[in-house]
Amino acid sequence: MAGPQLGGAAVMAVDELDTLILALRADGYRVVGPTIRDGTIVHADLERSSDLPQGWTDEQGPGTYRARSVDGDAQFSYAVGPSSPKEELFPPRQRLWTATSDGDASFQVVEEVRETPRIAFLGLRGCELAAIAIQDRVFLRGSYQDEVYAANRSDTLLIAVECGSPGGTCFCASMGTGPRVDDGADLILTELLDGDPRFLVRVGSDTGAALLERLTHREASAADLDAREQVVTAAAAMMGRTLDTDGLHDLLLDNLDHPRWDTVADRCLACTNCTLVCPTCFCSTIEDTTDLRGEKAYRDRRWDSCFGLEFSHATPASVRTSTKARYRQWMTHKLATWIDQFGTSGCVGCGRCITWCPVGIDITEEAAAIRRASDPTPADLPVPPTGAR
Amino acid sequence: MHDGIGRPTVAVWKFASCDGCQLSLLSAEDELLRIAEEVHIAYFLEATREVVEGPYDLSLVEGSITTPDDAERIRHVRDISTTLITIGACATAGGIQALRNFGDLDAFRSLVYARPEVVASLADSTAIAEHVPVDLELRGCPIETDQLVEVISAVLAGRKPVTPTHSVCVECKLRGNVCVAVADGTPCLGPVTQAGCGARCPAFARGCYGCFGPTESPNPASLSAWLEEQFGVDHPELLRLYRTFNADAPAFRSESRRHEEVAP
Fold it and tell me: The complex's ipTM?
């Protein structure tokens, strides 16, 4: 009997996760999903379902993250960690080409051969699917197509797991990217913990339908669909943060001289963590090097950040010398001018920039402070640390 | 200045230092042989007694200036060097011996030496760049061999070296380290410390202790406030955190001074 097709729904037992991972690996996919490493839930290659952080959850707040073990059968009872699909699709470092000297003045440039890895992402949340969609737009749909991203993205399979446990820094509900997932993935799972633990599986593509065929499943009942509804509704009410996006574009751009930029700059370390953990930040720089003998030259691309001084270096110097200018550039791009440039906000509400900021700067709080008043009261302006610049 | 077969000449100089940076060049056996093929090591007393008279195309200078004689000698080194690169925390910030800049030299001298009056010493231990123009500063205690090889390769090719001045955090993220401060509550100077080490300590679950000195735009006051408020690090401990190998680097110096003032 043919199983559910595109848009259909089924239910599978928890054990079938293992079958799923093995089936994907048999098809030559690397299965990339959450696992526990260094006390943190990160993305890594999964070999069996036992690699998943079963029995783990996390507690997140501004500048703090702790994973902790819990009782129960849940496989996906945590919010996003520091990893994101960006690490696979737009890797931190990529060699672009190597030039080899043939002696004297002539040389040959050899472009890197672009592998097209088969990657199946398992356990993607709504915010992460939204982030992939944003990077797709940036890297693939502009006037220029990024070869590295295109190669890495060309043979990917996306398996979402709807989020049932948002963290203290999450605000996907504000950004309209989650926790509910209805499309954008090949399969959309929801972990149902009422009664017998099981997964609701919805089909988002023909590839997903073919994959589901290979798993033991039954038809989804109205009760299963109802249980799923309860999971996502409860999750939407558990957001640790909210961001009021109403008129936010104009609000920020009309307040470029707001004193709040000075107070946040007093706290900001310009360390780049927020941009590097952000699943949509896409900036990079080029590094040209040569070997000692002068026989080989290399061109590499690595992640860069608008918080670096060199990032905005234009002859003869950096055009954003203050941390204030750099923080304002990042936040106004992410929440405002990104919309002008790409048609959507650059923020998916995952909360990573809040959790992984070493001094806990909260983008939702910064936006709220600017919204509270264009003529701020002293209460809106936190006292900077003594002696801060 | 090039030697008979066209190789540029290199001199390696020592001032007040532990020799660790020179050792990191000597102990990099594979790279050292390749370097010796491309340049003529004309003056490197730690490696060989053979000395070729200057001037030199490239001088690598280790150590800080702590005596009147050395203050003279570094000017001579500058005069006979086309390119001068300082290597390590001593040469770029005064080193661990710059701790004396925060104390009373005469008191130290009488405590340590039987006849303090014969010891000619300057009040402060200072970076080479405070005495002569420096073409490039290579940070670290000690320097990273990879960075030194990169700088020598760049000098040979006549290009800009790749020695970023951003934070250690960038290196943690590039290599996939989980943040020890956020995920473990370990005090870490990474956000205010310049990259170059490859985020070695956080890779072993240790906090960065700042041996590469301050970043291009450091904000230690904010980091200290957070460490005090969230991690309970007190003023004496904060003072010690900044007052190590790069104690006299301006951003770390002013921050440790601040905790001196508020310490009970």
Answer: 0.94
CA neighbor of A59 nearest in space, from A35, A38, A39: A39
A189: distance to nearest CA of chain B, Å?
A: 28
CA distance B64 to B247: 13
* pLDDT, tens digit, 9 for 90 and up, residues A67-107: 999 888 899 999 999 999 999 999 999 999 999 998 777 88
Instruction: Please list the alpha-helical segments (H only) found in chain A.
Output: 16-26, 86-89, 126-140, 147-153, 172-175, 206-213, 222-236, 248-253, 260-267, 273-277, 323-332, 338-342, 352-355, 363-372
SS3 B137: strand
Of B152, B169, B192, the CB nearest to A273: B169
Instruction: Choose from A32, A36, A38 for mutation: most chain B CBs within 10 A.
Output: A38
The residue of chain B with its CA nearest to that of A278 is B173
Cβ–Cβ below 8 Å for A293 and B37: yes
Residue A149, both tokens: 């991203």
Assign A315 a pLDDT band (cuts: 50, 70, 90).
confident
Q: Domain coordinates of chain A in residue numbers? A: 9-236, 248-380
Q: Are A41 and A35 in contact (CB under 8 A)?
A: yes
**Å between B53 CA and nearest CA of chain A:** 24
pLDDT in tens, A288-310: 999 999 899 999 999 999 999 98
For A28-58, what is each residue's pLDDT tens digit? 999 999 999 989 999 999 999 999 999 999 9
**Exposure of A317 by Cβ count < 10 A (0-12 exposed, 13-18 middle, 19+ buried)?**
exposed
User: Residue B116 carries which side chain, given as an amino acid letter?
Assistant: P
Is residue B206 included in any domain, yes or no? yes
Three-class secondary structure of residue A273 per DSSP: helix
User: Which portions of chain B are predicted below pLDDT 50?
Assistant: none
A92, burial (CB in 10 Å: exposed 0-12, middle 13-18, buried 19+):
middle
Examine the domain organization and report whether B150 and B236 are in the same domain.
Answer: no
Q: Give residue B245's domain range.
A: 168-262
Residues B153 and B29 in one domain: yes
